[in-house]
Amino acid sequence: MSRIVLVLGSSMGGVARHVRMLAGGLVTRGHRVLVAGPGGTEEAFSFTGTGAGFAEVEIADRPHPAHDLRTALRLRGLARGADVVHAHGLRAGALAALALTGSRGWPRLVVTLHNAVTAGGAIGVVYRLLERIVARRADRVLAISPDVAQRMRGRGALRVDLAVVPAPPLAEPARSAEDVRAEIATRLSGTGLSSTGLSSTGHAPQAAQERPILLTVARLAQQKGLETLLDAAAGPYKGDPVFVIAGDGPLREELQARVDAEELPVVLYGWAEPADLLQVATAVIVPSRWEGQPLSVQEALRAGRPIIATRVGGVPAMVGEAALLVPPQDPGALSREIGRLLGEPALAARLAQASERRGRELPDEDAALRAVLAAYGLAS
Fold it and tell me: I need a labelling partner for 265 at 20 to 30 A (CA). Which of 170, 241, 258, 284 fits?
């Protein structure tokens, strides 16, 4: 039985869900696990509910020398006697590396990088420094995508593997397709646009009065490329599709103002159970500037939905032949592929079949646990 410390920053999304999954799996396998992170993450994800311990450690999104020193000292104390420290994210990884500076042998430091560094200017310089700290100190770096892995090798990391970050199994829908369609229709009618004939077939519409639903699941933030999606939503398209964006975030008001001003056929749905919306989705659109191993894409694959996505990060390797890929920030290319998908039922059917097949091939939680235990140097 080994003692493992999992460290994370201020995550309210996929990173925290991944850490919770690892914590539960490691506890089940007989390891003692302590999760160290901001108090809000425990409130939202209940790491202690998995049988792990929890220690509150504030890891801010931005560098702050005095605060970071206190955090590093706190992590150093928590890591005393541990066999492995596994940090998630660049900031958490760099602080864990600083905390363990001067230690010999154990604890082993593993860092999973869940995102690419896209910032420029002074912030970009700081993050590049943090990458070098992680590259030189971590015993193993797990990268979310091939481009992040290559970047870290360029920073000097000698042991880099691809991370395995599976989405949880797709739940059964909590609401009927009819209820979901009715709610989308109601929300769309609130914009003054026609809402008749929404289809739940999951394929291109077979009758002119049916309206396809094109689903995007994303945090409403700059990385997700939603302004490109709104550019493309203006159409026109066969079947007069409705674009449903499920998620929330800092750009909500800005996006809603543009939807209203331009009278776009777009519904900002808010957070929802993915299975509810996937059952009525004709296709899933992923317009992001960058992605690693997005849970939303994994869920779309498991649901057997056609996908149109940007050719970025780890997306191409994840989707294989189950998606139409376009360059990021290219609304013309995105619009053309949407039109192609809606206009060619045979193409939509072929992509749906490829998506379902690829979904069955995705790694599961057991594969993720085997991968981290190998990175820890422990038997699975």
Answer: 170
Q: Which of 117-131, 164-178, 285-299 is predicted least confidently?
A: 117-131
Reduced to 3 states (helix: H, G, I; strand: E, B; else coil), residue 110 is: strand
Q: What does the pLDDT read at residue 175?
A: 94
Q: Where are the beta strands (DSSP E) in the chain?
A: 3-8, 32-37, 53-56, 84-88, 108-113, 140-143, 160-162, 213-217, 242-246, 266-268, 283-286, 307-310, 323-326
Q: Where are the alpha helices (DSSP H) in 29-108?
A: 39-45, 65-79, 90-99
Q: Give SS3 for 211.
A: strand
Taking a C-beta distance cutoff of 8 angstroms, is the pair 143, 161 a contact? Answer: yes
In whole angstroms, what is the distance from residue 22 CA to residue 291 CA?
A: 21
Q: How crowded is the C-beta side of 213, counted as CA atoms within 13 Å?
A: 32
End-to-end alpha carbon distance in the chain: 11
| Among 86, 59, 103, 78, residue whose Cα is nearest residue 140 | 86
Distance CA 362, CA 249 (A): 28
What are the tokens at 346?
Answer: 């045979």
3-state secondary structure of 69: helix
Query: Residue length, the chain?
Result: 380
Collapsing DSSP states into helix, strand and coil, what is residue 204?
coil
For residue 309, which of 290, 170, 242, 205 has the smallest C-alpha distance?
290
Residue 3 one-letter amino acid:
R
Residues in a beta bridge with 318: none
Place of tokens 């919306």: 277
145 pLDDT more than 70: yes
* Average pLDDT of span 67-93: 94
15-20 contact pairs (CB < 8 A, 24+): 15/88, 15/89, 15/114, 16/41, 16/44, 16/45, 17/45, 17/168, 17/295, 18/88, 18/114, 18/165, 18/368, 19/45, 19/47, 19/88, 20/45, 20/46, 20/47, 20/50
Q: How many CA atoms lie within 13 A of 273 on its CB side?
A: 13
